[in-house]
């Protein structure tokens, strides 16, 4: 069985450290851990592959289309590999979760996320797994675009680095055991401080 792990983000140096690129952060961290470079160009994306401990192929994908057109890379990969939705995990930033929180999800709407919206449009259905990584939300609605395209503050940086490590563990569980065990890991609220 092959698993496709997709990190969403925007290409270009000016976006490298922005909130919208947390999907890239986690996929890059997994590539680093596996000793592979995400450089192979295919279907408007950069990819790498490795075999997990069970001998199953894992493909890491970073669409190179800009966020709003992510589906133009993701959909051809899913079609080419003839994957079922439970073999695909898309990792993306989530305004509706506080910074540091994550949620695994099966299917559903785009929830206003343009990268997910593009994938839904290109696939024609919502049936794939997601790892939503909380980045918080700005106080004013009209600030959303500027917010997601801005870098994390120094105070947020430590928290998002912990999120990347937690996300890495979640992805490893998904690869090994599937969506439900991953959801059991990430879909619980963190205990209160001092608990």
What does the model show?
By secondary structure, the protein is of the alpha/beta class. The chain is built from six helices and seven strands; from the N terminus they run E-H-E-E-E-H-E-E-H-E-H-H-H. Strand 2 and strand 3 form a beta hairpin.
Helix-strand makeup class: alpha/beta
Order of helices and strands, N to C?
Answer: EHEEEHEEHEHHH
DSSP strand content: 15-25%
Average of per-residue pLDDT values: 92
Instruction: Count the E strands.
Output: 7
How many structural units, i.e. domains? Answer: 1
What separation lies between the terminal Cα atoms? 41 Å
CATH superfamily: Peptidyl-tRNA hydrolase
Widest sheet: strand ordering: 2-3-4-1-5-7-6
Tally the helices: what do you get?
6
Determine the CATH topology: Rossmann fold
Helix content: 25-40%
- CATH hierarchy class name: Alpha Beta
Radius of gyration over alpha carbons? 16 Å
User: Runs with pLDDT <50, length 5+?
Assistant: 191-195
Q: How many strands, what sense, and barrel or not for the largest sheet?
A: 7 strands, mixed
């Amino acid at each position: 069985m092959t698993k496709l792990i997709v990190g969403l983000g925007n290409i270009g140096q000016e976006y490298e450290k922005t909130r919208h690129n947390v999907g890239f952060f986690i996929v890059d961290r997994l590539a680093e851990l596996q000793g592979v470079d995400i450089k192979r160009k295919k279907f408007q994306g950069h990819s790498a592959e490795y075999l997990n401990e069970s001998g199953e192929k894992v493909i890491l994908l970073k669409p190179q289309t800009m966020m709003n057109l992510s589906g133009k890379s993701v959909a051809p990969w899913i079609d080419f590999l003839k994957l079922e939705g439970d073999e695909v995990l898309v990792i993306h930033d989530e305004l509706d979760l506080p910074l540091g929180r994550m949620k695994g999800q099966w299917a559903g709407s785009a929830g206003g996320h343009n990268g997910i919206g593009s994938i839904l449009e290109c696939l024609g259905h919502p049936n794939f797994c997601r790892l939503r990584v909380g980045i918080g939300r700005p106080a004013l609605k009209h600030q959303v675009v500027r917010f997601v395209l801005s870098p994390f503050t120094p105070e947020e940086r430590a928290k998002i680095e912990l999120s990347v490590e937690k996300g890495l563990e979640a992805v490893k569980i998904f690869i090994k055991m599937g969506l439900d065990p991953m959801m059991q890991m990430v879909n619980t609220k963190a205990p209160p401080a001092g608990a």
